[in-house]
Structure formats: structure tokens, C-alpha cells
């Protein structure tokens, strides 16, 4: 591929990336620039092999702090020391024993993925491809990441944003708060968002306030909206031509709840709520979600203290998504599986499924025996059909 330069309004990454996925032997730098932010993605033979960004939030030290691998004060001190010594930051923290190499690689992969995914949403700015790669230096190299899986996850993320912005008019949206519809044990992230919304903070500011990034903030907002705890102040009811379809969705959600099919009820109620904030749909969503969480509680509690984390294979298995890998890093740094699953923006059920994919890929295993050394018998299948791994 020859040198190429264009505008992101006409040549977004969703259109360009398939060409890089399928181009055998391609080597070069893909640069995207919008305002003061410039990102570079280094590509070799269908893989992302490096990434850089001028966005302060995407500095590796900030990423390590957000992932709780290295606390913020020590990350800042390490950055200053690395600058003084003239050593790349990642190399410095590994050589000084501040961060394990495996954890650094996880953080670098997460940083590269999130920068790429965010760039898919840019509809203005410049894009340029330049053949050839910069000479390798002392920096720790990013593990090869398959562009095919990255493109798959980026397009999934784009669909997620499309649903989100269909529901809410724009970043200037403000919300009414109905705390009685929030869960009794709201997470710290949910409580923070509710307090900000009560103060009249706009949606754009709510997303910006999420320390883990806008996509995580959007997921928290969406969950609170579906429960009826956050309601946009300026909203339209369902269109007249949607009335019949909406009634059918509500009836289907009611039947699913009555049949104990709570996972399906949650999905159907969420579909109804994509059309308009309907009180009955909010109520059905809350009921199904709570019953799902109750059904899940015993299974999740049984995992505490029994998970064994294997090093991530390089490259990572294609069956694992970006959210799976992010959950892996969160779980490995926590003592409580239940707390991680309850406090992840993707939702408890989605996180539980991600954990099962990690187990199916053999990067997370169950300890075969209980602490007292007795063999653990076969556990039951959970009430809504997700098979439970046998210890």
C-alpha cells in the first residue's frame, strides 16, 4: 500500500481497517489527528505492533493507575525519574521492579485497544498511512495484536455507541433522578453519577467524569436509565407507528418474567426502552435484573478464592473480546469475584459471561479442591441456562 492521506469525514477507520486486515506483508504507520490529539498505530502483516498518543489520559502511567497496577503518586514519580534518566517509561518501571512485565503488557494492550476504538468514532480530522515503521528503541514492545479481532471489537463498540446516542439527544442532555429505582447497594460509580445528575450536570460531563473512560461511563448511565433511576429531561414518547411494536415487546417481556426467563426478559425490556422511557418497561427491566442477580449470587460466591490466573498467551485467543481481557485484569487484582462483577460497567451478567469465556480459553481456571483439601463435587447449573464449570 502506498502513502495515503485523507479526511476522516470521508475515510473513517471502519472503512479503512479491512484493507489493513487483509493486506499480507503490509508494514507501515497509520496516523490519525484531530485538534491537539495525534495517534499513531504501527502495523505489520495484519497485526498492530505499536501505538503512541498525545492524549494525556492515554499516557501509560495514567493507564497503569486506572487499572490499579501502579498507584498514581508512584506512577508520577516513576515518570519523572524515567525522564531524568532518559529511559522509556515502560522500560523504567519494569527494570526497577515497580511493575511486572506481564502486567505492563496487559496495560499496553488495553491502552492501544482503547485508543484505536475511540479513533473509530472520529468523524473529523486527518488520517494518513505512511509505509515503513520507526526503528525499534529501548521501549518495551507491544505484543502483536491481530487487526481482525481489533476491528471486530471496534465495530461492536460502534454499535454500542449508536444505541446510546439514539436514546439521548446529545452531550447537553440533563437527567431527572429517581433514587427509589436505583439498586439498594449502588456501586460507587453509580452513586457518583446520581449525585452529579441531581446537580444538573450534563451527559457529556457525566461521561468525562468516569475515570475508566467515556465508554464505561456510558454503560453506567445506560444501566441507570434502564432501571428508571436516570431519565432524560428532554425526551419524546414513542411514535404513533411504534405503538403496536412497543406493546408487543412489553407483552413479551412480561411473559418472560412470568416464565422465569429473566435473561431474555432483560433483553426484551431493554429493546423497548430503546424506543422511549416507558414506566412499565423500566419496571420489568428492574424486576428481571434483580432476579438475575439473585440467581447468580450463589454461583459467583462459590468462585471466590478458587480462581487461578494463567499468563495471557501471546497472541491472545481470538475468542476473547476486549471486554474479556479488561475483566481479566480487574479480576486478577481483586480478592472478590463478586465485587468485581457487581462493580463493572458492562453489567453483572455480561461480566459473568466474560469470565466463562476466560475459563473456556484456559486463562482462568478453578482450583480443583476446597481449602480443606476435600474434592469439590459437581455444582448445579444456574437457573437461566449458563453451564457451570465442574471443579
From TrEMBL:
Domain PatA-like N-terminal: 6-162
Annotated SUPFAM superfamilies: EspE N-terminal domain-like (SSF160246)
Pfam families: DUF4388
Signal peptide: none
Cross-referenced InterPro entries: PatA-like_N, T2SS_E_N_sf
Residue stretches of biased makeup (Basic and acidic residues): 370-381
Protein name: DUF4388 domain-containing protein
Organism lineage string: Bacteria, Pseudomonadati, Myxococcota, Myxococcia, Myxococcales
Amino acid at each position: 500500500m502506498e502513502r495515503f492521506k485523507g479526511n476522516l469525514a470521508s475515510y473513517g477507520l471502519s472503512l479503512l481497517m479491512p484493507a489493513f486486515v487483509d493486506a499480507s506483508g503490509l508494514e507501515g504507520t497509520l496516523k490519525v489527528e484531530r485538534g491537539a490529539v495525534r495517534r499513531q498505530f504501527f502495523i505489520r502483516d495484519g497485526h498492530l505492533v505499536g501505538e503512541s498518543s498525545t492524549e494525556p489520559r492515554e499516557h501509560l502511567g495514567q493507564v497503569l493507575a486506572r487499572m490499579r497496577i501502579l498507584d498514581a503518586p508512584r506512577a508520577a514519580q516513576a515518570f519523572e525519574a524515567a525522564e531524568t534518566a532518559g529511559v522509556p517509561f515502560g522500560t523504567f518501571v519494569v527494570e526497577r521492579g515497580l511493575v511486572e512485565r506481564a502486567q505492563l503488557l496487559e496495560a499496553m494492550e488495553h491502552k492501544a485497544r482503547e485508543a484505536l476504538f475511540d479513533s473509530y468514532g472520529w468523524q473529523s480530522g486527518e488520517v494518513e498511512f505512511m509505509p515503513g515503521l520507526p526503528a525499534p528503541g529501548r521501549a518495551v514492545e507491544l505484543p502483536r495484536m491481530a487487526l481482525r479481532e481489533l476491528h471486530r471489537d471496534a465495530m461492536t463498540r460502534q454499535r454500542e455507541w449508536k444505541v446510546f446516542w439514539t436514546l439521548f439527544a446529545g452531550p447537553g442532555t440533563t437527567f431527572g433522578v429517581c433514587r427509589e429505582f436505583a439498586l439498594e447497594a449502588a456501586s460507587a460509580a453509580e452513586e457518583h453519577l446520581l449525585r452529579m445528575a441531581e446537580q444538573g450536570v450534563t451527559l457529556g460531563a457525566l461521561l468525562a467524569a468516569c475515570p475508566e473512560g467515556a465508554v464505561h461511563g456510558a454503560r453506567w448511565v445506560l444501566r441507570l436509565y434502564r432501571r428508571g433511576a436516570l431519565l432524560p429531561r428532554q425526551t419524546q414518547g414513542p411514535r404513533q407507528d411504534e405503538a403496536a411494536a412497543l406493546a408487543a415487546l412489553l407483552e413479551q417481556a412480561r411473559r418472560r418474567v412470568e416464565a422465569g426467563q429473566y435473561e431474555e426478559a432483560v433483553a426484551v425490556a431493554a429493546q423497548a426502552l430503546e424506543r422511549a422511557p416507558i414506566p412499565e418497561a423500566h419496571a420489568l427491566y428492574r424486576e428481571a435484573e434483580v432476579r438475575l442477580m439473585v440467581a447468580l449470587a450463589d454461583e459467583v460466591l462459590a468462585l471466590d478464592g478458587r480462581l487461578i490466573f494463567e499468563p495471557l498467551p501471546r497472541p491472545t485467543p481470538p475468542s476473547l473480546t476486549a471486554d474479556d481481557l479488561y475483566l481479566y485484569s480487574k479480576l486478577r487484582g481483586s480478592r472478590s469475584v463478586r465485587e468485581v462483577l457487581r462493580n463493572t460497567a458492562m453489567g453483572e451478567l455480561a461480566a459473568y459471561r466474560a469470565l466463562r469465556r476466560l475459563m473456556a480459553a484456559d486463562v482462568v481456571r478453578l482450583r480443583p479442591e476446597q481449602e480443606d483439601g476435600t474434592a469439590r463435587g459437581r455444582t448445579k447449573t444456574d437457573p437461566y441456562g449458563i453451564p457451570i464449570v465442574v471443579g
